[in-house]
Amino acid sequence: MTADAASPIRRLFVMIRCAPGRTYEVAARLVDEIEECGELFSISGEYDLIGRFDLSRHDPGLFVTDHIQRVDGVVSTHTIIAFNAFTPGA
Hints:
Blueprint: E1 10-18, H1 23-33, E2 37-42, E3 49-55, H2 60-68, E4 74-82
């Protein structure tokens, strides 16, 4: 399911748990193969990576399950949908 062309950008932040020893491989695939990946960082804690994904034409739930979770080496994800951006001085 896709949104129409006039739909606003939906920004998702997805925390990704990788199979042991595969974080850098997974990160490379996400950055190289998923056009909607705006930024990707390695993080500490329960998850290994956090990525910002900017969607203009995908349903967020389908995007995560059809694109991110299908990358070999991804064990689990936790998705946060952002609504408003607040910046200093704005």
